[in-house]
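Hypothesis: this fold can be encoded by more than one sequence.
Test: take the structure tokens below, design a sequence, compare later.
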């Protein structure tokens, strides 16, 4: 199948994403030299970013996942719940929280606070994308690959109603594709 008819504009190509993630991975490796990390991916949007990031992390680490829900189609719901918790105890760990996109900041600010409250030694945030124009909750994005405009985007893990996660680049959906996947 071809995604081309569904995408209005390509924001970041696969090559741009891959190259930038490599740079960010190298920076994180330097910052955590000699320390052990617990890399926590926020499901499901972070999976492609996280797999590329892990390939470029030259530190001792374990991985885990957490799943929460804060988004419904194109609109933020403004509330958040944990659907699947970590398998490991975050107590005493240096955590790198991996997210696909920081939008209002609700998800990441909630996750950082909750991991610190559960005894994590430190929590830093790596996000593939940052949409600063939409920020409502204060978040320190320690490692961001790209800033993006205030447009609803899909691909490289990001979905629209669970579709398009497997698009190998980041693009803006057109109105017909939005209607077809409502
Ligand atoms: P926040 O809690 O408002 O920061 O939203 C973060 C979550 O909303 C992300 O993990 C994404 O799953 C989702 N999200 C925000 N903007 C977009 C977008 O443009 N496309 C797809 N998902 C998005
Ligand atoms: Mg998400």
């Amino acid at each position: 199948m071809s995604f081309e008819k569904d995408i209005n504009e390509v924001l970041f190509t696969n090559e741009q994403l891959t190259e930038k993630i490599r740079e960010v991975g190298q920076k994180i490796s330097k910052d955590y030299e000699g320390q052990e990390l617990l890399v926590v991916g926020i499901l499901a949007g972070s999976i492609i970013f996280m797999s590329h990031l892990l390939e470029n992390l030259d530190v001792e680490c374990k991985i885990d996942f957490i799943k929460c829900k804060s988004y419904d189609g194109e609109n933020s719901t403004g509330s958040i719940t944990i659907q699947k918790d970590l398998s490991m105890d975050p107590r005493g760990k240096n955590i790198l929280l991996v997210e696909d996109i920081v939008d209002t900041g609700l998800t990441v600010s909630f996750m950082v606070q909750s991991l610190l409250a559960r005894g994590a030694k430190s929590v830093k945030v790596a996000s593939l994308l940052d949409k600063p124009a939409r920020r409502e909750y204060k978040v320190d994005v320690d490692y961001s690959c790209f800033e993006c405009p205030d447009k609803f985007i899909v691909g490289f893990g990001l979905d629209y109603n669970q579709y398009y996660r497997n698009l190998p680049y980041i693009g803006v959906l057109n109105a017909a594709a939005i209607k077809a996947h409502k």
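The mean pLDDT is 93. The pocket of magnesium ion (ligand 2) is lined by residues 42, 45, 100 (CB under 6 Å).
Hypothesis status: open.
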